[in-house]
Design a protein that fits this description.
The chain contains three helices and no strands. It is mainly α and 107 residues long. It is elongated. Keywords: Membrane, Transmembrane, Transmembrane helix.
Length: 107
Amino acid sequence: MEMSATTSGWFSKAIVILLLATLGAIQAFTGLAMLFGEPELRPLSGPQSGQTPPPELSGYFFLRILHTFVGLSIIGIAALHIWQNRRSLKLYLKKIFLPAKTGSSTS
């Protein structure tokens, strides 16, 4: 069974939107986990700073790396989303910035 261009078009757009929503939720979760997480997830400073484990073994390091890579992925997928919807965006931008002419003003 062959898919038409419109069928594959809406399907790929739906996948991109779902990816953006999922990655956005992961981004929010990791950001909040790093902000409000347990103190042992945050890097220690001050007199106890010598007792910290190597950064590769801490949960904070994993959250920071995940947060970074998800953020970079969102940038790429958002660019794909804009490219997929370029015709609609072009139409909307024309309506916003080039208002329709309403006849001549000569008397």
